[in-house]
Each structure stands twice: as C-alpha cells, then as structure tokens.
Amino acid sequence: MRMRLFGVLAFTTLAVGLLTLPVITVGEESEQKISLDELLKQRGNTLQQLVEAVTSEFRSGRVSYAVVAQARSRLIDAELELANSHQERIAFLKQQIEASETLFACANEGLRRGRVPQSEYLTAQADLLDAKIALAREQDESGTGQRTQRR
Question: What pTM did the predictor assign?
C-alpha cells in the first residue's frame, strides 16, 4: 500500500512539475531559456502545493505521515536552496517549526484516537525536533552549528 502511495506521489509530483514548465519550441530555445532561479522557484511552488495536498490528506486519514514527511523534506531542501541570506533561512526555518508543531499536534490527536500508529507520532516528534535543531544551528553566531559534548 505504501509503495502504491509513493508511486502515486511520485507521479503526481512529476506531472505537476511538468505542467508548470513552459513549452519551448526548437526555434525559440535560445530566446526563452529558463534560468536556474526560475526552475528553483517553480520546483518550490510545486512542492509547496504538494505539501499542502498531502497535509490535508494526512489530516483526513488518507495518507500516512511518511508521505507528508517526505514531501516536507523536499520542500525544506528546495526553500533553503532558494534562500539568499541568513535572515531568509531563519525566517523559513521558523515557518517550518510552526508547520511541524501543527503536524505533531495532528499526529498526537491521531495517536490518542487510535488512527495513527506510535511510529508516525514519533516520526512527527523527531521532525519537530529536527526543525528546532536546524533553526538553532542557523542562529548559531559562531556559524559552526556544533554542539558541545559532555565528558
């Protein structure tokens, strides 16, 4: 079942991505060359739509948290690649924490009602912690993002 969902997710992502690309005829290729920035923005927009769709499906119990986590991971990578400054990365990571907190709350409620297995609840909790760690590392003034180890 999960492989089937993954296949549908992959096909949907590919189809949506292809629909957003402009059609270029052979003669117009040099005039309408798509910039890397434009491709990155299109990918980000497509992944944002995907995250919204699978989040809604997760809330209604139609997909597992794993599908949401995979889509969100791809969006985070895409958005961080688009960020041009330290402040943009921090702002985006703060948004990710808010989204992770919402999904964690949904997973918690689903676990309480018996609709979500404990493994998905724990994955949502780990994702929230990962988002907080990523923000803490980005905010680290030393720029190392390394934690000190206790002895």
Answer: 0.67
